[in-house]
Structure formats: structure tokens, C-alpha cells
Amino acid sequence: MTRQPSAVVTGAASAYPAVRSQEELWDTFMAPTLGASRWSRRIFLAAGVRQRHPAFDPSKEDISSYSTGERMARYVDEAVPLGREAVEGALDAAGMKAADVGLLAVVSCTGYATPGVDIRLAKELGMDPGLQRLLVGHMGCYAALPGLGAVSDYVVARQRPAVLLCVELSSLHIQPPTADLEQVVAHALFSDAASALVVEPAVGGSRPGLRVVDVSARTDAETAGHMTWDITDLGFKMGLSRQVPDVLAVHVGPMVEDLLGRNGVERDEVAGWAVHPGGPRILDVIGEQLDLAATDLAGSRHVLAEHGNCSSATVLLVLDELVHARVAEPGRYIVAMAFGPGLTLYAALLQVVEPGRSAPRDQLSGEGERTD
Description:
- By secondary structure, the chain is of the alpha/beta class.
- The protein has two domains: 7-201, Thiolase/Chalcone synthase (Peroxisomal Thiolase, Chain A, domain 1); 209-357, 3-Layer(aba) Sandwich (Peroxisomal Thiolase, Chain A, domain 1).
- It contains ten helices and 14 strands.
- Strands 1, 4, 5, 6, 7, 8, 11, 12, 13 and 14 form a ten-stranded mixed β-sheet that branches. A two-stranded antiparallel sheet has the order 2-3. Strands 9-10 form a two-stranded antiparallel sheet.
- Helix 1 runs antiparallel to helix 2 (38-45) and helix 7 (244-261) packs across helix 8.
- The longest helix is centred in the first third of the chain and has 27 residues, at 68-94.
- The relative contact order is 0.19.
- Residues 356-363 have low confidence and may be disordered.
């Protein structure tokens, strides 16, 4: 049987703004308005987040009253350098020059501009004028996986390398402090990051990395109102129902079963689970439905604690954790999952390929963080 052409993730890197502790964010932004609300404080500090990386630090600058236009102007100022750092790191990890990239796909639901981040980055990085570009916008936390699917299809069809960049600035959309439960949860969870992947054609099995086997989706349109991301005059406002984990519980098992089954993969061949940490309860529900051990979700919980929920970039951060930890040997599989508005679930099946040699710890991954 002739093996079909495939795409392989050969380099990854992430970049973050400066770090702030969850306690500090409560004390400097939420507490002045809600300090008397013990319930709000308890929810905020029990979100599973220890620290986050806000590009727009409310302890230094309160942008909660800024118009959407003002916020979009600021988005470009922060997204381009953060995205550039991640892309340069991923290219370096893959040993590739920017001019060799055939497609640059940028994923974001937190800001828009024309000319966009894709065009500005391509210019700054010296990419080829014939570069193809793709913008995946406003899909939310799961968008990295359809982005990966589109990029992989390009790589297989054109036999040229591509870069996927997720750049999210959730702190740009901070709302005025309120005791409304949904908004307290949103303020407690979301953070900023950029994460990039280099995806190349698999030629003769000569490149170590993660082979993209398949991507799967499932949308429950009847529950579309459970998670929303509305454009308002004061930026984008999150709507987050407490019923989201219950909906995920219905669909995640059948989706994973179908993804593995149609690719002839047995459950015991999956060695790693990169689950988007939308919040502690979501991870609990996914673990219960898929009968996962605590160690299977350790990477997800660590990313949530150390970085918060960085929207579309988050599942790539978790995937990076698993690569660093070497949870899967060559030939074994990793399932990546993310969830968002729709209510939508996405999953990707990835296979570890490491032909002939062991890749150093930093060959597939690198990350940076500003300390200013």
C-alpha cells in the first residue's frame, strides 16, 4: 500500500508579554470595585490560573472604557512584534528561512486591521512577495486546529512549507469590573500569547516532528448561545454559560472515537492528550468522559496555571508541553482538542515521527517572554 503524502510540524515557538500574578490582577483591577464581594474574589482566584501575561496590564493602564476603534489600533502595535517573535522562533527551530515559506496563516479573534498582521509580518520577516496568506478570524479558542488543517492541506497539495501563527490579545478587551458571574470568570481566565508552527511536506521520512494525520470537527448549533464573543462599542465581550462543560460531555467521546476509528488507531496507541484548558471544570469533564488519568491532563493544567486561557494559541502551548515532556515515542499518537463558540469542538490526530535519531529538546520548540 502506497503511503499518502503528509504534512509534518517541524518547528514551534511561543512568545508572551510580561507576566502578572492572579493575586496582583485582583488587587489592582478587580478589588477596587468588587473588593467587598467575597464570592467574586473566590471565583477569580479559583480559576486554576496562577499567573498571566497581559499585554495591556490593568494595574498600569485601564483601557476598559476604550472604544473598539481605539482597541483595534492598539492591537496592531502589540500583535505584530509578539507574532514576529513567535514566528522567528518557530522558523529557527525548524532550520528554515522566512523566504522559503509558501503560506503564512494568521489566526486571531482579538483584533483586526487592514493591511493585517499577516501582511505586516511578511514584510518585516522578508518573506517572498509571492507568499500566499490566510487569515482565520473570530472563530475563538478552537481556531488553531482548523488553521492547522488548512495549512496542512496546503503543504500536502503544494509540497511547500507553511507557517501557522496564533496571536491573541484577550487583555485588549477587558471590560469594566462587574459582579456579573460570566464576566468575573472571563476576567479570571483569559490571557495573551502568540504561538507559531512550521509545517513542512514529509519527504522520505527525513524530518522529525509531528505528522498531521487528520482533523475532526463537531458543532452543536442548538447550543450556540452558550459561548459568545460579541463585538460591542467597548471592544469584544465574552458570554460564557455554566452549561458549556455539560455540552462538551455529550460530544467529546463520540468525536474522539470517530477520529481514531476512521484512521485505524487504537485508544492505547494515543500517548498524549493536548486538551484546551478552557477552565478547571472543562478539564474535569473531558477527563471523566475520556477516562483520562490525572497525568494525561497535567500539561493542560500547567498551561492554564502559568499562562491562563490564551484563546486559539492555548492548545498549541499545551501541545508544546507534551513535546517538551516527550510523552509519546515515535510512532505513537497525540490527540489535540479545543472548544469554542458554536458550540464547536475540534480535534486533531498527530503522530510522532522521529526517524533515525532523537531530536534535542529544543529542536521542535522554543519560547520567549518579555520582562519589561
